[in-house]
């Protein structure tokens, strides 16, 4: 359950390296304690709080680059390294890792992997799970287990990294991760337009046929404007697109995109370039989970790209004309985000209703009043039995974040 | 007839169940090795029949081995303990095609290339393209997490599987998807070589056919300089769709059979493919050609038309077969190193082969650092068989010492299970064992595969096929 009430403070441990982290886990397991692994702490309010938490193990000091030869297009780094620090290291060699998580200055590699975060550029570059080529994890019994390696193609044993990605620290703690990285695209443009709600369908229909597609394409509705639209009293929905690639392909992509928008009746598009484009795109990602005002809950539902616009529309009207729902429709990945504000009762009812409309939807951000509890996960998948068995096998004493995950795992 | 076979026959009928030795012989081997006959094979028509067969096998204590086309190169589909083989020869349909959302649902027995052909007119394609794509199945590709020449840009099979339907050891049918909350069971099942579940449907991701594709061929004096060019291309931040190298021995064998137009007198040939917009492809080619020339390329040319591209690719993908026509027997090794180590590892492989007096051909996915030395031998000569085993193991050790691994795409299967402990510690293996214990506590699904048996370590099993 997501709960608004404050918890009593557990002890915080900050191991200096993988060995110390594993030892801390073993000691906690031996003492029958429950442990929460923490990265940047940007997400701790999102999964259900664990049933018990005696100690927090912070990965802050596991922040070194272990191996980086830019000519290999691979990097290995400690789980506690922030995404911003990683990006900076890579940028020095004209490379990047498109993980697209919110608040990269605080979010860590381990936390991003554990949260299974998948951002809006995944149709172009793959998900975090696809970019991870090797990892070392500290298991609940204090052993360190590696899988994968430093090569980009590897079928040596089970692909354990996939199991730990998205496991929210319930099977083990990432201590190190290896990624394949990408050369930084030479050109980047971010396009922002406001449009009349009536042209939504027409836009969607024209945009999926672009020969040079954007790497991210989102319709934002009810979120704070990325540029200065709100200040001008313009609260129409916003369509945003990120183009990346060679100068010529980006130029062509933007040109075709603008003419498609034009044909759908969108008059004005603002284009940002280079670093500005990257900064505003990051703001669009942050806005998914950033608090807007007061008590609120934000849900994320996955689905088919072709249905994203329609599903976001259904979410927006789900609570009636008087209850605003802010939505985000990802036209490339099919993700739909829906956020609501209100008092305790309204939030609980709203989440239930949105889950009726969107199907399975996970809470990604919440600011709840004291005493309110809403399950972050919703209905468990039919394979929950296998998932429970995995948890029992990897963490027989329930040391790692017991109760915080899907189906009470 | 045993209780096992009669129960199978009773439940599924003679059309689905095979029990005669002459019918079972085809299920005893794959492209790596041959083993005993299974007690029975089933050729089911749907997941329900798969589930029924598995339930019966489990009740009778018989192991279960799923089988695609049997083109695996590590003994993965071989029924080393007899039992039940499940063939997907009849579950070979494209069930759903959703072009708008770039996805398709297929049965596991569908041949890889048939999927691509079926959807080509819609402007989409399925990216993983193992050289065996004309005969290997999507289910087998998922089983081994198959790679292919185009993995360099597009990734391997696991990056193109969105969800699965599988049957567990109790005969229960499950569906998993990347969109499910909870643990990524899809990701764990892909590449598990039939040891965790039997896959009965696959949801695959499709990609848009690019506007332009250009295939180029460069000749080099030797494999080392071609490898250096590849390292330099990757290091310069260019990721073409494919970067493949063939050495002189392979190039000559391939040309003798395919006449595709590869330079026959070169020490090594680089095959590069670029895809994207017309402008990007043109600019990319100029850059690649310059880097290649800077690294000693003797010639560079682009294929003139589609027919020539197809011919170059067909010849490259037929390399193993072409060697098969000129060599008494050959053994394909599969290993992977960080790409900067390519020139060095090629040098080492050459030295190892020379030490063992074995001719070696090299045809490999250079851009990924994924090597395929082909050791040529005659299996009637005991000395040569021993030499191949020893050389194969030395190559693996060399790759590991360079920060690489023992399989880039063919899998561990039966062949390399003892070598797994060269790469992973007992703790690493225990974590994998945990997964096995959850999905298949009785180790009834594809026993003797992937994991070392114990004592014997670091040997490559005897190659038996050509
Ligand atoms: C307010 C907010 C809400 C978010 N909600 C979600 C969400 O619901 N779902 C989602 O997928 N993403 C969510 N994200 C994105 C997610 O936080 C980021 O992807 C990620 O960057 C978090 O990194 P962190 O270091 O802050 O992780 P943290 O917040 O510290 O931890 C995230 C999760 O991972 C675990 N964890 C942290 N480090 C490790 C490690 N080394 N090994 C194992 N487990 C570890 C934690 O126990 C926790 O369950 C949210 C982000 C924000 C800012
Ligand atoms: C000439 C030649 C070239 C090759 N080139 C490549 C290449 O470029 N790249 C590459 O990766 N491989 C290559 N291979 C190896 C082989 O083709 C691949 O491993 C392929 O994926 C095997 O597919 P298959 O249908 O033949 O499967 P099989 O060999 O029948 O089975 C492979 C494994 O998958 C399991 N399996 C099969 N079906 C299922 C199912 N439905 N559910 C669960 N498990 C299942 C089997 O038990 C076995 O462990 C090549 C082989 C040959 C002979």
TrEMBL record, chain A:
One of its GO terms (molecular function) is catalytic activity. Residues 5-184 form the FAD-binding PCMH-type domain. Keywords: FAD, Flavoprotein. It comes from the Bacteria. The keyword Flavoprotein applies. InterPro entries: FAD-bd_PCMH, FAD-bd_PCMH-like_sf, FAD-bd_PCMH_sub2, FAD-linked_Oxase-like_C, Oxid_FAD_bind_N. SUPFAM superfamilies: FAD-binding/transporter-associated domain-like, FAD-linked oxidases, C-terminal domain. This is FAD-linked oxidase. It comes from Vulcanimicrobium alpinum. The lineage of its organism: Bacteria, Bacillati, Vulcanimicrobiota, Vulcanimicrobiia, Vulcanimicrobiales.
UniProtKB/TrEMBL annotation, chain B:
InterPro entries: FAD-bd_oxidored_4_C, FAD-bd_PCMH, FAD-bd_PCMH-like_sf, FAD-bd_PCMH_sub2, FAD-linked_Oxase-like_C, FAD-linked_OxidoTrans_Type4, Oxid_FAD_bind_N, Vanillyl_alc_oxidase_C-sub2. SUPFAM superfamilies: FAD-binding/transporter-associated domain-like, FAD-linked oxidases, C-terminal domain. Keywords: FAD, Flavoprotein, Oxidoreductase. GO terms for molecular function: FAD binding; oxidoreductase activity. Pfam families: FAD-oxidase_C (PF02913), FAD_binding_4 (PF01565). It comes from the Bacteria. Residues 34-209 form the FAD-binding PCMH-type domain. Belongs to the FAD-binding oxidoreductase/transferase type 4 family. This is FAD-binding protein.
């Amino acid at each position: 359950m997501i709960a608004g009430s404050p918890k009593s403070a557990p002890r915080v441990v900050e191991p200096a390296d993988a060995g110390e982290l594993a030892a801390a886990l073993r000691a906690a397991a031996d003492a029958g304690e429950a442990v929460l692994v923490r990265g940047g702490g940007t997400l701790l309010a999102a999964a259900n709080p664990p049933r018990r938490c005696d100690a927090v193990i912070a990965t802050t000091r596991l922040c070194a680059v272990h191996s980086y030869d830019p000519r290999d297009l691979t990097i290995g780094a400690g789980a506690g390294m922030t995404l911003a620090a990683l990006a900076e290291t890579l940028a020095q060699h004209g490379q990047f890792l498109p993980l697209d998580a919110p608040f990269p200055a605080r979010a860590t590699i381990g936390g991003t992997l554990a949260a299974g975060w998948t951002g809006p550029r995944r149709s172009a570059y793959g998900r975090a799970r696809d970019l991870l080529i090797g990892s070392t994890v500290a298991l609940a019994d204090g052993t360190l287990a590696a899988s994968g390696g430093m090569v980009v193609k590897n079928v040596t044993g089970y692909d354990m990294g996939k199991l730990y990605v998205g496991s929210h620290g319930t099977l083990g703690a990432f201590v190190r991760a290896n990624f394949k990285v990408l050369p930084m695209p030479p050109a980047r443009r971010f396009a922002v337009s406001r449009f009349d709600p009536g042209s939504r369908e027409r836009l969607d229909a024209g945009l999926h046929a672009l020969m040079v597609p954007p790497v991210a394409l989102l319709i934002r509705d009810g979120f704070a404007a990325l540029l200065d639209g709100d200040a001008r009293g313009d609260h129409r929905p916003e369509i945003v697109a990120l183009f990346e690639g060679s100068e010529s392909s980006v130029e062509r992509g933007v040109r075709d995109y603008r003419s498609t928008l034009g044909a759908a009746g969108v008059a004005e598009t603002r284009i940002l370039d280079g670093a500005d484009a990257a900064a505003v795109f990051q703001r669009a990602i942050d806005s998914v989970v950033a608090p807007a005002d007061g008590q609120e809950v934000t849900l994320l539902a996955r689905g088919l790209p072709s249905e994203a616009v329609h599903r976001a529309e259904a979410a927006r009207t789900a609570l009636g004309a008087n209850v605003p729902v802010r939505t985000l429709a990802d036209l490339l990945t099919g993700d739909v985000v829906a956020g609501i504000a209100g008092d305790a009762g309204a939030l609980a009812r709203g989440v239930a209703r949105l889950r009726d409309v969107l199907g399975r939807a996970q809470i990604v951000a919440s600011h709840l009043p004291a005493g309110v509890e809403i399950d972050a996960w919703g209905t468990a998948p039919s394979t929950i039995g296998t998932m429970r068995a995995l948890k029992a096998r990897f963490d027989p004493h329930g040391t790692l974040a017991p109760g915080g995950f899907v189906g009470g795992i | 007839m045993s209780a096992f076979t009669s129960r199978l026959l009773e439940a599924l009928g003679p059309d689905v169940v095979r029990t005669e030795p002459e019918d079972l012989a085809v299920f005893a081997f794959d492209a790596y090795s041959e083993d005993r006959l299974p007690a029975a094979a089933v050729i089911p028509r749907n997941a329900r029949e798969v589930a029924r067969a598995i339930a019966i096998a489990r009740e009778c204590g018989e192991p279960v081995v799923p089988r695609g086309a049997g083109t695996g190169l590590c003994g993965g589909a071989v029924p080393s303990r007899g039992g039940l083989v499940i063939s997907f020869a009849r579950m070979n349909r494209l069930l759903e095609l959703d072009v708008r959302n770039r996805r398709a649902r297929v049965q596991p027995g569908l041949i890889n290339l048939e999927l691509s052909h079926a959807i080509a007119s819609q402007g989409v394609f399925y990216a993983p393209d193992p050289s065996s794509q004309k005969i290997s199945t999507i289910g087998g590709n998922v089983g081994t997490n198959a790679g292919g020449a185009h993995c360099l840009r597009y990734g391997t099979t696991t990056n193109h599987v969105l969800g699965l339907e599988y049957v567990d050891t109790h005969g229960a049918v499950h569906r998993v998807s990347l969109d499910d909350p909870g643990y990524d069971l899809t990701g764990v099942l892909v590449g598990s070589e039939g040891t965790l579940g039997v896959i009965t449907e696959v949801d695959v991701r499709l990609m848009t056919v690019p506007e332009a594709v250009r295939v180029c061929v460069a000749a080099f004096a030797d494999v080392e300089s071609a490898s250096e060019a590849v390292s330099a291309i990757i290091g310069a931040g260019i990721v073409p769709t494919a970067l493949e190298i063939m050495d002189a021995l392979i190039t000559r064998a391939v040309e003798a059979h395919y006449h595709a137009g590869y330079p026959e007198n070169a020490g090594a040939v680089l095959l590069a493919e670029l895809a994207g917009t017309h402008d990007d492809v043109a600019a990319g080619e100029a850059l690649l050609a310059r880097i290649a020339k800077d690294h000693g390329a003797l010639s560079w040319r682009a294929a003139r038309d589609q027919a020539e591209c197809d011919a170059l690719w067909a010849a490259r993908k037929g390399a193993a077969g072409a060697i098969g026509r000129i060599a008494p027997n050959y053994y394909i090794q599969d290993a992977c190193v960080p790409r900067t180590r390519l020139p060095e590892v090629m040098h080492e492989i050459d030295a190892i082969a020379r030490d063992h007096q074995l001719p070696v051909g090299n045809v490999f996915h250079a851009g990924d650092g994924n090597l395929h030395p082909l050791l040529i031998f005659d299996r009637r000569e005991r000395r040569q068989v021993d030499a191949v085993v020893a050389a194969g193991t030395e190559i693996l050790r060399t790759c590991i010492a360079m920060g690489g691994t023992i399989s880039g795409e063919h899998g561990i299967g039966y062949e390399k299970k003892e070598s797994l402990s060269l790469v992973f510690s007992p703790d690493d293996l225990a974590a994998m064992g945990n997964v096995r214990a959850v999905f298949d506590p009785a180790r009834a699904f594809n026993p003797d595969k992937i994991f070392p048996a114990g004592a014997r370590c670091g040997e490559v099993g005897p190659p038996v096929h050509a």
